[in-house]
Task: structure prediction
Amino acid sequence: MTAPVLTAPRTAPLPPGGATLPRAVHAEWIKLWSVRSSGWSVAAMVALGAGLTTLVCALVAPDLAAGGTGEPVGAFITWGLLFAQVTAVVLGALVVTGEYGTGMIRATLAANPRRGTVLVAKAVVLASVLFVAGVVTAFLGWLGGNAFLSAEGIGISLGDDGMLRSLLGSGLYMAGLGLLAMAAGLLLRSTAAVVSVVLALVFLVGNLVMLLPGALGEWLTKLMPGNAGSRIATPETFNPVLLEPWPGFAVFAAEVAVLLAVGAVVFLRRDA
Amino acid sequence: MIVASDLTKRYGDRVAVDGVSFTVRPGHVTGFLGPNGAGKSTTMRMVIGLDRPTSGTVTVDGARYADSPAPLRAVGALLEARALHPGRTARAHLRWMAASNGIPVARVEEVLGLVGLESVAGQRVGRFSLGMGQRLGIAAALLGDPPVVVLDEPVNGLDPEGIRWVRTLARDLAAEGRTVLVSSHLMAEMALTADHLVVIGRGRVLADCSTREFIAEHAASYVKVRTPQPGQLAELLRRSGADVVRDGDELRVQGVDTVTTGELAAAGGLVLHELGLVTSSLEEAFMTLTAGSVEFAAAHPAEVSR
Result:
């Protein structure tokens, strides 16, 4: 290896700079795309979401057109998101747990000891990427799925009731879900733990509470994060109990905000 | 300049750092020396705000690290070689760090060259050897061209050439007027690198002095004498106030020098076969000083006492 020749610090000083929020965002952006798991997560979201939506539309289009199923057509047009959301949870978890698992968190906090700034930067990058990925996934799913629906004469145009909102809503729901996983990551610090807990909450608990009797079961069903938040991502729903799209999303956003706040408090106080 | 005052860190019941105060001055390499578990790493983590002190303060050039507008330009730290994501390339690791503190991208290539990693900069660091990881960690520490450099066990995992490289690097950085704090559990290494030593054991400062003073004070020496009449010579020496340990025909004498020993022997008409001064190694001095403060001591068979 070469002998060290140090650049003289006094003769060629670096231009001035500070660890500002925009720079923290830039740093998180570089971090996100310089590990393979991020690209794979986003690719998996698009492939799963758009692919499964197209597939399910292709399979059910003839029956739907014949009116044999009794299901609303609009409930199928973003159907793949049901599975694609797993990737949002994984990506959201990795943004934090990937750093705790490897010890990277120390490098991150040495580079910027203002932990609030670090957290905001992580959230901004994660939410932006997932929003765009969610919208693109839903749009591609609509393109693919609608081709089959249109062929049967039951196509949904972008101008139809709730369709445009569902595309944007897919992005919003993915971003929110990613932030939920990120918040859980701040508390649990382990990828496996976060992914299992968040997926159990969204898939398992969200469906189990439907079995509870009476108003309690109904309201718990309405308020569970996955149920409240996902309604905005679809023009129509299989589940008549759910809250309306925007009120549901407001509930979901509030839940995410609370968990993020708790995660932030723990993160600000904990030794790295 | 790093100033720690009354720095204390408790983890539950365990006191990792116990009221530590010291000053690390610019222009010198200060060695931070102590057995494993003595509290070196905890102290260094508190310097850059990763761990919050239970009480006490530590400042870098008069300010808390967290208040520095561009921290990487204030302090460069190598805390653990493996504070890296294994899936990221060396270059990407330095790039995000540079971006976070507004350091030009060109500086990334500069430090990669400085530590000799240009040729592997595009490789994922998960495939790096321990030594390459250390070099990358040092590159990261130098990225912001900081006036203060903190290196925790930098020679771990390095080959002899790498060890010499780190030694030269630390001295060069100090010669440029920077404040350099280097930790190690190896006394011999520190004796070669550091001008000043802060020795800690069980979270307390045991010594804070120049390396030369430390050696003079703690590297104990004794007079070694071989004589066919050890009993008689031991008696003479003891009478003049020396401590004597006999081992066959050999005496180990402390409290008098070689001249006095020789003269006493001559006065008593005793024959000497050998007379000399034995200086114990620095490593031994360090072991003696920290003997009571080793956290995980192996059970030794009774050692030869002096």
Summary: Confidence is low (pLDDT under 50) at residues 300-306 of chain B. Chain B touches chain A through 58 residues (CB under 8 Å). The two ends of chain B are 40 Å apart (CA to CA). The first strand of chain B starts at residue 2 and ends at 11.
